[in-house]
Amino acid sequence: MGTHHYSVILVRQEKIAILILVLVIAIVLASAGVLEVIGKGIFSKPYAPECADGELVHYEGIVEEQSYTATGGHKILVISGMRIFIPSSCVKEGWPKVGDAVSLYGVVQTFRGEREILIRAPGDINPVNPPV
């Protein structure tokens, strides 16, 4: 049996297809980078009582209360009268504390008839005036 040698020769249409594929990948990566730099602010709106469940909102205020759920290690804050739910995967031990000014992004939801904002990532809640 003979040995077969295959050479790869791309025709014009294949070269164009590969070029288009490379350009699309570059555009997607660049877009992802731009969206990461821009952040969630461009897609969120300030929280208001009329916000619908599922909306991405921005909220700022002073931490008035904090507690943990009985199971799961989730943190519940009351910030300027608004309930904030922080899943255990997003909890930063020791922060925020009562009296801290914070700025956050989250999704509006209703839990047991009470409106709250759900934090979805650890970086979604930050100090208003970071310590120096």
Describe the structure.
This protein has one helix and seven strands. With 132 residues, the chain is an alpha+beta fold. The model has no long low-confidence stretch (mean pLDDT 89). The chain starts with 11 loop residues before the first helix and ends in a 5-residue tail after the last strand. The protein has a domain at 43-127: OB fold (Dihydrolipoamide Acetyltransferase, E2P), CATH 2.40.50.460. The protein has one helix at residues 12-38; strands at residues 45-46, 56-68, 75-79, 82-86, 101-111, 114-118, 125-127. Strand 2 and strand 3 form a beta hairpin. Strands 2-3-4-6-5 form a five-stranded mixed barrel. The chain is 20% helix and 33% strand.
SSE blueprint:
Blueprint: H1 12-38, E1 45-46, E2 56-68, E3 75-79, E4 82-86, E5 101-111, E6 114-118, E7 125-127
Parallel strand pairs: 1-2, 4-6
Antiparallel strand pairs: 2-3, 2-5, 3-4, 5-6, 5-7
What features would you highlight for this structure?
single chain, 132 residues, alpha+beta, OB fold (Dihydrolipoamide Acetyltransferase, E2P), 5-stranded mixed beta barrel, 1 helix, 7 strands, 20% helix
